TrEMBL record:
Annotated membrane topology: Multi-pass membrane protein
Name used for this protein in its record: Tlc domain-containing protein
Domain TLC stretches: 69-300
Chain segments annotated as transmembrane: 36-60, 72-92, 112-132, 139-161, 167-190, 202-222, 267-289
Sections of the chain in a coiled coil: none
Originating organism: Ophiostoma piceae (strain UAMH 11346) (Sap stain fungus)
Predominant location: membrane
GO cellular component, as recorded: endoplasmic reticulum; membrane
Example GO BP: lipid homeostasis
Compartment list: Membrane
InterPro entries: TLC-dom, TLCD
Length: 314
């Protein structure tokens, strides 16, 4: 299926990035660099313009009273909410409508080296967000912490190597980690809008825990085993790759054709992906238990203090 992004590749931008793409071995990066740049600029615009304007209009007393660091945190949650809604919709649409991607299901070599326009577009838009996220986290490390920095670095590494192309098939799969993110952001906003402990926050908390557990822990780790297996096969065996012109391919460009005798993927790439994936999954497990604790604090009454604890507090 062709890339449906409404803006075609920008020749000047593609030429500018070509030397870096050649150096890194990111053969399809020039075809999608405009999507990365536009995505990063869009989320920057949402953070700097859209969020402050709408927040001051709808929540002037809450947003207006915040300090600079708290406003940054608020704006970042607005960006995260918008991004997760957009990228989840695109990923699900791609998975259910792209027949070319469906045809890759039974061929591990295509899942590793295959290239299709729509999953690559999803990966490019995600990379744009992760670049924005990395910059914001570095500039405000005291606000967001090392955990979110590790997440931004790992996520950007995993998705950027898709422009070799590599694991293009899985880009939509792993972006579905974000299905729980809208509920996470709503949970945070309920606290800031003095709705802590409300029925709306309770229902949202149930949806948050359910989607986080099912999407990130169960589905995410299950699909990780598929990726590890495919990559391990590719370490020892690989197709020869020949670029051929295909008018039906994304943007009318080339696609992969397979033969015999190509070099397998380098071991360092396998190690990098496994390490990044383990980092992300470990963070998800850590955040899941913190999430349960945070929800319980809002809805489970604290046990009354004993006489000894009261005396210690005095």
């Amino acid at each position: 299926m062709k890339d449906i992004f409404p803006i075609p590749p920008i020749p000047a931008l593609s030429r500018a990035i070509q030397p870096l793409a050649d150096y890194l071995g990111f053969e399809i990066l020039p075809l999608h660099i405009h999507e990365i740049v536009i995505s990063a600029l869009f989320y920057t615009f949402v953070q700097l313009v859209v969020s402050p304007v709408l927040s001051n209009f709808f929540f002037p007393q809450v947003y207006g009273a915040m300090s600079r660091s708290k406003k940054i945190n608020w704006d970042v949650h607005v960006v995260s909410l918008i991004q997760s809604l957009l990228i989840n919709s695109l990923a699900l649409w791609c998975m259910f409508t792209d027949q070319e991607r469906t045809n890759m299901n039974n061929d591990w070599k295509e899942r590793i080296w295959g290239y299709i326009g729509t999953p690559a577009m999803v990966a490019a838009l995600a990379c744009g967000y992760f670049i924005w996220d990395l910059v914001i986290t570095l500039l405000n490390l005291n606000v967001f912490g090392l955990g979110l920095l590790a997440h931004a670095v790992s996520a950007l590494a995993v998705f950027s190597f898709g422009f070799r192309p590599f694991l293009n098939y899985y880009s939509c799969t792993f972006i579905l980690y974000e299905l729980s993110t809208p509920f996470l952001n709503f949970h945070w906003f309920f606290d800031k809008l003095n709705m802590t402990g409300s029925r709306a926050q309770l229902y949202n908390g149930i949806a948050l825990i359910a989607t986080f557990f099912s999407c990130r822990l169960v589905y995410g780790m299950y699909m990780s085993t598929w990726v590890y297996r495919d990559m391990w096969n590719a370490v020892w065996e690989g197709p020869s790759v020949e670029w051929i012109t295909n008018p039906d391919a994304a943007n009318g460009i080339a696609v992969r054709a397979y033969g015999a005798g190509a070099k397998p993927i380098p071991l360092w790439l396998f190690i990098l992906y496994v390490a990044s994936n383990i980092c992300l999954n470990s963070l998800n497990v850590h955040w899941f238990f913190k999430m349960i604790s945070a929800v319980r604090k809002r809805f489970v009454p604290a046990a009354p203090k004993t006489e000894v604890e009261v005396k210690k507090a005095q």
